[in-house]
Structures are given as C-alpha cells and as structure tokens.
Amino acid sequence: VQLVESGGGLVQPGGSLRLSCVASGFTFSNYYMSWVRQAPGKGLEWVSDINSGGGSTYYADSVKGRFTISRDNAKNTVYLQMNSLKPEDTAVYYCKAELGSFASWGQGTQVTVSS
User: Fold this and answer.
1) Which long-range contacts (CB under 8 A, 24 or more apart) does 46-50 make?
2) What's the rounded Cα separation, in Å, for the pair 3 and 102?
3) Is 54 exposed, middle or buried (CB count within 10 Å of its CB: 0-12, 13-18, 19+)?
4) Distance (Å, rounded) from C-alpha 108 to C-alpha 44?
5) What pLDDT sits at residue 59?
6) Considering only CA atoms, which of 21, 105, 111 is closest in space to residue 70?
7) Where are the alpha helices (DSSP H) in 8-115?
8) What is the dihedral of CA 14, 90, 49, 106, to 10 degrees?
9) For each successive 10 residues of the chain (115 residues), what is the average pLDDT?
10) For residue 20, what pLDDT is reported?
11) Alpha-carbon distance 70 to 15, whole Å?
12) What is the predicted pLDDT for the residue at 64?
C-alpha cells in the first residue's frame, strides 16, 4: 500500500494550489479518502473527506468554501484544490486511505503560504 502526495509549495496569500495523492497497492475505489494537515508545532487537523464513490464530501469549517476535495478512481488519485490560501493554511498535508479498521498514510507534502 502506497500513497504519494505532490503539489505542495510556496504560494502567496490569496493564491491557489492543487494537491494530488496517487494510490497504489490496493483497490483505491473501495476506500474512503481524507486530507489531514499538521501546522508547525501543532497537532494533526482533519481537513476534508470524500467517500469511495466521490459523491459525498466533508470539510472542516476552517477550509469550507475555499478547498475542494475530489477523486478520480480511474487514476487512483485524490485531489485537494485549495483556493484563497491564508498563512494559517501553512502545514504539511497528508492524504489518508481508510477501509474499516485499516488506514494508510502518505508521506506528506509541504504547503507554505507567505508573502
């Protein structure tokens, strides 16, 4: 099981980034996918979820209206489109795959929002 995130980087406040997480080694379309972040010196913060079929999505209040989660089961990929980025969005972003009691995490991608 492997999850590989990409798309992070340095962006100015108000800018946008799209994170990708490519999965391999399991049947991606069966899994519930999440994005979780960790800001410097802080704990893990849940950001967004998407169900296996992509028809249901959920967001933390801190990102609602600015971030959009989506998935392409044909490409084994989950995305996080991040718009109107703020300095407080600075964090390492991780994707997570879940099915029942099984969970797997990626290695994370750094997002830095700064002028």
Assistant:
1) 47/80, 47/93, 48/80, 50/78
2) 14
3) middle
4) 12
5) 98
6) 21
7) none
8) 130
9) 96 98 95 97 97 96 98 98 98 96 95 97
10) 98
11) 19
12) 98
